[in-house]
Amino acid sequence: MFRLPSNIKVYLAVGITDMRKSINGLSVLVSEQMELPVFSGHLFVFCNRKKNIIKVLYWDRNGFCLWHKRREKDCFKWPESRKEIMAISKQELSWLIDGINIYQAHKPLKYSAIF
């Protein structure tokens, strides 16, 4: 996709988003509905009803960028949650864009004891 700084956060708008919205409409959703800092440089990810389009909005130093991907076959494994906003890792975003279910992908395990 693109190279991301280590301090970048990724936020999903978990529900369905009207993909007719572009930079202006999506930035208003981020600041007013999601109540997140739209000029932070963090990534804000949106998906349509059919789950075949993803848009990623972010601020890059002197302007907004909008990344758009449409799957021609199949759909994205968009997560479902009771929350309106979901924070995910950059690795999970990569999996999501590749069509992998982020809940079923291999995640690192952390143990505090052997037995």
Describe this structure in words.
The structure is a single chain. This protein has a five-stranded mixed sheet. The protein is globular and about 55 Å long. The protein has helices at residues 23-33, 90-97; strands at 10-13, 43-47, 53-59, 64-70, 85-88. With 115 residues, the protein is of the alpha+beta class. It is 17% helix and 23% strand.
Key traits:
five-stranded mixed sheet; 2 helices; 115 residues; 17% helix
Sequence-ordered SSE layout with sheet pairings:
Blueprint: E1 10-13, H1 23-33, E2 43-47, E3 53-59, E4 64-70, E5 85-88, H2 90-97
Parallel strand pairs: 1-2
Antiparallel strand pairs: 1-5, 2-3, 3-4
- Ends apart, CA distance between termini: 41 Å
Number of helices: 2
Number of strands: 5
* Fraction of residues in β-strands: 15-25%
The description of the largest β-sheet is: 5 strands, mixed
Detail the poorly predicted runs: none
Please trace the helix and strand order, writing H or E for each element: EHEEEEH
Please give the radius of gyration in angstroms. 15 Å
Structural class: alpha+beta
Strand order of the largest sheet: 4-3-2-1-5
Shape: globular
Overall average residue pLDDT:
90
**Approximate helicity band:** 10-25%
